[in-house]
Amino acid sequence: MKKLILILLSFIAFNLNAQEKIEVKKENTKSEQQKFTQGNEAKALAKSETKKLTKQLDLSSEQQEKVYEVYLNHFEGEFNRKQKIKKMMDSKDKGSKEKIKQQLGKQKRGGSEALNNKLKEVLTTEQYEKYLERNKLQQKNKQKKLRAKN
User: Fold this and answer.
1) How far is it, in rounded angstroms, from Cα 145 to Cα 150?
2) Is 45 in contact with 74 (CB distance < 8 Å)?
3) Distance of alpha carbon 66 from alpha carbon 50, whole angstroms
């Protein structure tokens, strides 16, 4: 009987230890995500997007440099905009929060349109068409994921 109790206790202790490790990993990934979205990560995001486009669209070295600059400016603007919005959202005025949400939607659309226009200048017509198709597929996938969550 004592052996049975010891086996059960060791099994329970083992399971508790495993659960603690899983929770620690979840906390680490959240902190990594927060670091990823902060200021100087605009360069990393621009670099990764440039690499993706280079692979998919077969960009020349000149195009790569220009695309990198376009994305860098875009992501820096996004980070600055997000910081301004956070400051505004911290205000206690509920009416201003609604206005901020409306402005955010308009700015998001305007930002993506500006990005597309700048990339259109850099890319050839064939490359730009492939880029637009890629964006449409990404939007569809995002919508499917959102529907699955709800």
Assistant:
1) 9
2) no
3) 9
Q: Give the separation between CA 121 and CA 49, rounded to whole angstroms.
A: 17
Query: How many other C-beta atoms lie within 10 A of the C-beta of residue 83?
Result: 12
* pLDDT tens track for 40-73: 688 889 999 999 999 999 999 999 999 999 999 9
Q: Report the C-alpha gap between 146 and 48 in whole angstroms.
A: 24
* 68: its two tokens: 């990198």
- How would DSSP label each residue in 26-89? HHHHHHHHHHHTSGGGHHHHHHHHHHHHHHHHT--HHHHHHHHHHHHHHHHHHHHHHHHHHHHH
Share of the chain above pLDDT 70, in %: 71
The answer to whether residues 68 and 50 touch, using CB atoms and an 8 Å cutoff, is yes
User: What angle, rounded to 10 degrees, do the helices at 42-57 and 125-149 form?
Assistant: 120
Distances (CA, A) of 132 to 47, 120, 135: 19, 10, 5
**Which residue ranges make up each domain of the chain?**
1-36, 44-149
The pTM (predicted TM-score) of the whole model is: 0.64
